[in-house]
Prior knowledge:
The protein is mainly alpha-helical. The chain has 4 helices and no strands. It has helices spanning 9-47, 55-80, 87-108, 118-131. The two termini are 15 Å apart.
Amino acid sequence: MAPTSPTPPGPRLLKALVVSLIGVAASHLILSDTLYLSFSAQAASTLGTGTGYSSDQAFTSALMNTFLLMPLVLWIGMRITGERGVGPMVAVGTAGWITAVGNGIGAIDDAPGALLPLVNLALVVAAATAASLVRRPRRA
């Protein structure tokens, strides 16, 4: 098989932007929906009826699910669009997402349906998109 030529920066950036937006949206949806389970468990324990899981379990599950989803969405999304060498984008996007959640979890763990700060979300998308331009040198 003959090696394919790399995608020009403009189309690659556009693909990365779309995939990053989808990744942040999907990860945020999973985070907020799973945190809702934590709220339900807290309410049930306050009322004296058990849900079968603790609020701590649901909170940990929310974080783990969202941290695992982001790299999968970024990698699969870029591979579906035909891009190769997406490791730097996946690494930067995942690290940015973990940082954004870590810094913004206080804003969303008190009220169901709350959003992480939009600045954090935009920074994750921008960093992951910019990291898509990092490529390994091709071997001869």
